[in-house]
């Protein structure tokens, strides 16, 4: 591996560490709070599918930075999905408040 090919790989790996590492505080926060009410399940499901596709792409082109970033990000994203599903199931569905009856003026 020459200098020209190793520099892009190193840059890609550092970028992968930064973008993937950004998920770690959110996963830790969900774990500590035991709540994922503020997390959108639909967003993380779609994000996980996209990340899986990027991982498959990285495997196809044999790109270590793409593989590493997306394998780690997929694990974190699916962890968030699992926590969301588990915590939502544990607390039950929030009850809907009934609308107040309309009075003579409303």
Radius of gyration: 21 Å
Structural class: mainly alpha
**How many strands?**
0
Tell me which CATH architecture of the domain at 38-90 applies here.
Answer: Up-down Bundle
Main beta-sheet annotation = none
DSSP strand content: under 5%
* Shape, per Cα inertia axes: elongated
CATH class of the domain at 38-90: Mainly Alpha
In whole angstroms, the N-to-C terminal distance is 76 Å
Quote the CATH topology of the domain at 38-90: Monooxygenase
Nutshell version of this structure?
The protein has 106 residues and is mainly alpha-helical.
General description of the model:
- The chain is mostly helical.
- It has a domain at 38-90: Monooxygenase (Up-down Bundle), CATH 1.20.1280.290.
- Helices cover 74% and strands 0% of the residues.
- It has four helices and no strands.
- α2 runs parallel beside α4 (64-91).
């Amino acid at each position: 591996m020459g200098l020209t090919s190793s520099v892009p790989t190193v840059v890609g790996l550092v970028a992968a560490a930064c973008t993937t590492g950004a998920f770690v505080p959110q996963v830790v926060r969900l774990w500590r709070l035991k709540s994922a009410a503020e997390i959108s399940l639909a967003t993380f499901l779609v994000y996980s599918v996209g990340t899986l596709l990027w991982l498959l792409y990285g495997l196809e082109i044999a790109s270590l930075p793409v593989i590493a970033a997306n394998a780690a990000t997929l694990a974190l994203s699916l962890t968030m999905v699992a926590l969301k599903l588990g915590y939502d199931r544990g607390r039950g569905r929030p009850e809907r408040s009934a609308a107040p009856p309309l009075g003579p003026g409303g």
